[in-house]
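The protein record now logged underneath.
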Amino acid sequence: MSETPLPIDQCDVVNKKALAGYRTVAAKWHRWLKADKHLALWNQIYSMLIDDLTFRALSAAAEADPESALNSPILARVSSPAMQQCKG
């Protein structure tokens, strides 16, 4: 969606009322995803993805090298319960 969309009366659509409704909903979704600096969903989704990718990368590295420091019992004690559950 462009920053300044064409006025609805200039759009080549059959159902201009539906287009207006779509634009209203799309603007609301955009606010939910990006507009709020602290509560936007996109920030939360991004953070979850980065956490997951980091965990998967470290987990794969630990599994690839059993002698790695990543398999240290000290790390198991300080890691979160969720990470301990994933370790199996």
